[in-house]
Amino acid sequence: MAKKEQKETTKNKKSFFKGFKAELKKVSWPTPKQLVNNTVAVISIVLLTAVIVFVLDIVFETINSQGINRLKQMVSNSVEENTTSEENTADDTSEEEETTEEENAADDTSEEGETTESTENVEVEATNPEANTNTEDTTSENTTSNE
Questions:
Q1: Quick check: pTM over 0.70?
Q2: What angle separates helix 68-127 from helix 132-146, to the nearest 10 degrees?
Q3: What is the pLDDT of residue 16?
């Protein structure tokens, strides 16, 4: 029985190598030019990937050497500055609104007098063209006196 098993294994090995050789004949092998092009492409992609990984490693190492706590401190400081500036902006806006309201009230009272003077000047200009130069001088004097 041992001889039978040994013959079968030898037969199987021979048939395996015959099948292997037959399959290799069916393979379409690349030309030497294609082989060089594909090899160069693979090597260049591997080198590019290695450079990217190297750069990222250095960046993360630098960040780690700075310390996570320092980054947290920088972030918290920037957040505090933003909230402080927002509060200052809100305070400035409310002060500006108050100032604007006061100015509007003062302007309303002074505008009533200026409006009357300017309409009188227009009426004078329409009736007397020579009075144009005198009217402009008077208007500028009136505005400076009102201020």
A1: no
A2: 140
A3: 87
